[in-house]
Amino acid sequence: xxWKTFLNRFVVAYKNLTQNYQNNIxxxxxxxxxxxxxxxxxxxxxxxxxxxxLSKQRAAKLEVLSDKSLLDxxxxxxxxxxxxxxxxxxIINVNYLFYRILEYCAQDVIGKSFTSVNIWFNNQxxxxxxxxxxxxxxxxxxxxxxxxxFGKIKNFLLSAEEIDIDGETLIFCMARDITNITQTSCCIxxxxxxxxxxxxxxxxxxxxxxxGYKVKDFIGNNTLPYADTIHKDDQKLVWDRVQEALKxxxxxxILYRIKTKCGEIKWVWEKGQGVFSYNGKLLALEGLxxxxxxxxxxxxxxxxxxxxxxxxxxLTIKGLQDTNSALKLAxxxxxxxxxxxxxxxxxxxxxxxxxxxxEITDNIExxxxxxxxxxxxxxxxxxxxQAMTEPVMQQKTLLTAKQELEAISQQLNHLPxxxxxxxxxxxxxxxxxxxxxxxxx
Length: 441
Description:
The chain has about 450 residues and is of the alpha+beta class. About 50% of the residues lie in helices and about 20% in strands. It has 16 helices and ten strands. The strands form two sheets. It has a five-stranded antiparallel sheet. It has a five-stranded antiparallel sheet with strand order 7-6-10-9-8, with helices on both faces. Strand 4 (about 155-165) and strand 5 (about 170-175) form a beta hairpin. The radius of gyration is 38 Å and the shape is rod-shaped.
């Protein structure tokens, strides 16, 4: 239900609840409540819009990083392709997108060595790829950096496998340009062992942006194992989720916290899978890790805003119940309704002989008893004002009446919310009449 519909229903329900007690307090009270609720709904809408914007951005990334587009190495739509003869390490073919995206021509790459061709930003990357293929025959969803012919560095998500054609082993590489994704968020890929340290065999360069540590710090646990960056309260969760997925040989997705080199806590989303040999032996884990701290913050803010609204609605309902009960009580005290509906100074003065202890019923709260007497005192003061002819004395008397009203407003804390609103409305009404008379003088 949208917030406007809720507010409309809320107003109708309140009017039905109080239809037998028609006075200004109904409108003023419900107006105050709906304004507060409106503000809360607007806040939630803003947070929700921000969360939705982040979610849509992430959904666009996940569409690129999905199993369908990533893990199926033979789906070549929108990807650069490269075919390498393993025995000679020579590139024997590339597709049109390779030339268009990386800006090379055929003579720049065809017949060149896969490990030494100029496309690699990091000269060790092709060696790493060949080593991985030597062990598992396939690589999926790993981030590598390519250099265009004119020196621009681009990030690609690369998959590769060895294939046999007519008795010859070829390396088939497929890569998708994800430069825009990695520029707007921190997304890294990794290949690690399935041990308690998550010993890294490969991790992409964006690890420094995410964790503060360099690639060399993680490789082989040179400075520290990646496991040490995982928040201690989440370490068991990560281990259990990965092991459970490996048993079923399915992908895993985990949301957890890491602690960066400078001590900052970040939320990350990890998606990965086991790399198995042809006989089913687990060789390594491969996957992606993305910084989702901003999205998690929006989710937490939205949850808190909704929780605050829930509590506010509960208080509102209680306030309505109290108000309905109090208005019935107020119906037994006609003088309060009269005090609310006065129009002029003489109207207030008339109440002086009604707002006296003898007219107050015994079942009224003591705090309200004292406040009614105080209102009677104001009415008596205004009676004196009417009897005076000296302007200076009239001004002093009006000032006294204003001060007495202010004193009453400071005595309302112990009243139920509904009675507090009722008396407040009387005070506001009387102050307005006094102000008009004061300005008229």
